Amino acid sequence: MPDSETAVHNLKHHFADLEQQKATSTFGMWLFLVTEIMFFGGMFAAYLIYRLSYYNAWVAGSQTMEIELGAINTAVLICSSLTMVMAVHFAKIGNRKLTAVCLILTLVLGFAFLGVKAVEYHGHWVHHEVPGPNFHFEHEGNYDPRQVSIFFSLYFAMTGMHALHMVIGAGLLTWLLIANARGRFSPEYHSPVELVGLYWHFVDLVWIYLFPLLYLISKHHSG
Amino acid sequence: MSEHAHPTIKTFVTVWATLLVLTALTVFVATLELGPFNAIVALSIATVKALLVLLFFMELRYSTALTKVAMISAVFFWMLLAGLTLSDYLTRGWSSYVNPFR
Amino acid sequence: METVSRSTEPKTTNYLNADYGVKSWLLTTDHKRIALLYLGSITMFFFLGGFFAMLIRLELLTPAGDLVLSDTYNKLFTMHGIVMIFLFLIPSVPAVLGNFLVPMMIGAKDLAFPKVNLASWYIFITGASFILYAILTGGVDTGWTFYTPYSTTYSNTNVITAALGVFIVGFSSIFTGLNIIVTVHRMRAPGLTWRRLPLFIWANYAASVIMVLGTPVLAITIVLVALERLFHLGIFDARLGGDPLLFQHLFWFYSHPAVYIMILPGMGVVSEIIACFSRKRVFGYDFIAMSSIAIAVLGFLVWAHHMYVAGISTYAAMIFSMLSFFVAIPSAVKVFNWVATLYKGSITLETPMLYVFAFIGLFTIGGLTGVFLASVGIDLHVTDTYFVVAHFHYVMVGGMVTAFMGGLHFWWPKITGKMYPEALAKLSAVLVFVGFNLTFFPQFLLGYMGMPRRYHAYPPEFQVLNVLSTAGASILAIGFVLPMIYFVWSLQYGDEAGPNPYRAAGLEWMTPSPPPTFNFDETPEVTWEAYNYDEIDAPKKGVEVAG
Questions:
Q1: What is the tally of structural domains in chain B?
Q2: Which residue of C117, C180, C182 is the best one to mutate when testing the A interface, meaning the one whose CB has the most A CBs within 10 A?
Q3: What are C517-535's pLDDT values in tens digits?
Q4: In C393-402, which positions are buried (b, 16+ CB within 10 angstroms) versus exposed (e)?
Q5: What is the ipTM of this complex?
Q6: Is B97 within the bounds of a domain?
Q7: Could you tell me the pLDDT band of residue A154, with boundaries at 50, 70 and 90?
Q8: What are the percentages of helix, strand and coil residues in chain B, rounded to 5?
Q9: Is A206:A38 a contact under the CB 8 Å cutoff?
Q10: Separation of alpha carbons C219 and C538, rounded Å
Q11: Do A14 and C235 count as a contact with CB atoms less than 8 A apart?
């Protein structure tokens, strides 16, 4: 389909022109990210309050994290953000093939992240660090083990919710790949790629804060 | 289509490299014993990384004022949530009330 | 007021008859049809919540707990609260009147995201189904406030199902709010500056800001409660190292601003109606617009006034108390400006105006008693008593439901093209006013005398007031049932309304009644200020209008 036809084909009836439509949908996605900030924010607030009261337990919990895996995952997500902006770039200039390549790379990196996460979760399970009947925490330190259980509760809730958002992101990327393969995007109309990009970067943003908060509290054992 | 500035590929790659360096930096600083500054440095680095992603990858730098206001509002209201809740937790020990039943 | 006689001309195409069949309604993206989908749903839920209220009031006729078991009574007030708040009050004006009117008032053809709008309704129905399922399979007894650790550990009822239902319904609210904000920012007609907008838009915009910022926190809190209940986590359970007050902080961070989500759109309705039936521009337009924003922002700063006696620090209580006094100011500003609008106005007492007068009086009482409750010293004595119950029913029923009824009557001609029977409508309004006061004023007295809330038995000295309250509730019920009947009757037998039966200002009145699917054949260009009643009435008065 020629580009101008794609553009006209995609203009919704209640908008005056594509520019208004794009500005509107972009603002809509940013507003949705505002809700996501408040959504994750509730858990971050709970984390913050408990960290101040239960610092030693937080240190003990954090020290069971494998910093190497966390750092690798951080790097993986940063790379996926780069491949995502490249996907948007290629969609903007109308290069369908390279758009697909970058989307696939982003998807692969996303799955890599989830794979590492799965390894980490398995490790925690094996070491009895998952709250519930299987929880058993014995490391030396001046803390109440129930408090460490709360650390792990928040750890799994926060990283679990983050992982869920990544899975949704993977779904969105797949949808983009299909739409791209069908020639839906053009230099005039590629806002879905940009909007999914915004979502994907946001998920990266959450991890940028999760990593130091959960993995890097203190290398030194609490007194 | 309205023309407004966009980051170049060069900018994207520079930002990407900076993000990786900052990640390495924050891991390194975490190995040092800085007391309360560990948290401050770690969160500061995280904030710089977050701003890089927001401003350049998400092109917030080139977005409308309305979008910037929306993002700032979200952060502001989160700070209200955390801050006012903390006003309770941080001042609970201040009361001089002595429980006669202890 | 002249009435338009029944037309014998063939009906033109409007949004109601543009397409027929169940699919055309269930798959519609027309904001007007979606508004009606919501209207049907929330009406059903209103009567469901009312049913629970009826059982509560029947139980409270006698001091002994003799109608239902105490566990059952706990379920009754819980379900009454959940259904009324989440399935009726939160969506009522924004999702019904807001959906219908916001695009029309700004000269747009639809909301910014019509498919999201439809999804929003389906999400609402899905969440409501979870809640209904929870009700039908044994109920929930935690109170609509889901306090921990009872909800996470000790209750044996369908907490997770009900909580998940609330979680899902929350997303419906978020999407509606998101839609309204984006629409108002991006789709106003040419010439329609912010200060020319009807105050209804300002009100719904402010409420939408609250929806977008506050509801996600409720959502994550519910997720944590569900996880805690499933996996015995302990985040909110002192026995397991957690703090129950953290739940309350997170819960009320949303649930206090939620009351402003409920009342702000009603205030918007009041502004529109009072201007029309005083034939005057609303006094202090800028102040009312700004006060809507102020309420939205300040409303986020006061939540712990629900927790004064829960165990928070005294210093935090004092801070929240001071902030709670502040939040009353913008509401008071509105009340004064509405009353000033009446001054030298050409007032007529059509049904919508009756509801507006009721609103101003009842909301003032409700709001003032809220200020009493903001004072820690007073709250220590009346918290968790019927004083609080009376306070919030005055603002939510005397305020919000009254405003919703007024709005429903005011815009009914636009929505359906028919007029309701005026005499019967006025009678219903009076019944609602009398019934409401008889139901809830005695509750102020009961609370002050010490009757606790959420108890199904009480000391005998409280019986007389409780009987009065139940009697009032029956009158109130009739006042709500009558409109159900005559509104439906009017669809078939009501007078044809014409485009603007009240000669009201606003773009929505410049379309046929009912409007066509895309509202405007051509996007209007706005060159006049809001509430230009002087221009509208000028030929009638025979007065030259300068400019």
A1: 2
A2: C182
A3: 999 988 899 999 999 999 9
A4: bbbbbbbbbb
A5: 0.94
A6: no
A7: very high
A8: 75, 0, 25
A9: no
A10: 52
A11: no
Looking at domain A37-215, its CATH architecture is: Up-down Bundle (1.20)
Q: Which helix (H) or strand (E) holds B44?
A: helix B37-52
Q: Rounded to whole angstroms, how far apart are CA atoms C418 and C498?
A: 8
Pairs of CB atoms within 8 A across B/C: 43
For B97, nearest residue in chain C (alpha carbons) = C314
* Among A109, A115, A121, CA closest to A157: A121
* Chain A hits for C234, Cβ within 8 Å: 131, 146, 149-150, 153
Which residues in C323-335 are b (16+ Cβ under 10 Å) and which e?
A: bbeebbebbebbb
Distance CA A62, CA C211 (A): 35
CA distances from C107 to C24, C111, C127, C526 (A): 24, 11, 32, 9
Calpha distance A165→C88 (Å, rounded): 30
Of C246, C250, C245, C178, give the one whose Cα is nearest residue C218: C250
Total domains in the fold of chain C: 1
Domain boundaries, chain A: 37-215
pLDDT tens digits, residue range A20-62?
999 999 999 999 999 999 999 999 999 999 999 999 999 999 9
Is residue C358 over pLDDT 50?
Answer: yes
Whether B98 maps to a domain, the answer reads no
- Verify that B14 and B54 share a domain, yes or no: yes
Can you give the residue range of the structural domain that contains B10? 1-58
Residue pLDDT, tens place only, A171-207: 999 999 999 999 999 999 999 999 999 999 999 999 9
Contacts of C513 (CB under 8 A, 6+ apart): C413, C414, C415, C416, C417, C497, C498, C499, C500, C501
What is the enclosing helix (H) or strand (E) of C325? helix C314-342
Q: Give strand pairing partners of B88.
A: none
Question: Is the alpha carbon torsion for C56, C62, C68, C74 positive or negative?
Answer: positive
Sign of CA dihedral C464, C468, C473, C474: positive
Would you state the structure tokens that stand for residue C224, as one six-digit string?
């944590």
Residues B6, B54 share a domain: yes
Do residues B5 and B26 share a domain? yes
- Contact: B16, A198; criterion CB under 8 Å: no
Q: Which of residues 24-63 of A touch B (CB under 8 A)?
A: 26-27, 30-31, 33-34, 37-38, 41-42, 44-45, 48-49, 52-53
Is C249 close to B85, i.e. CB distance below 8 A? Answer: yes
pTM assigned to the model? 0.94
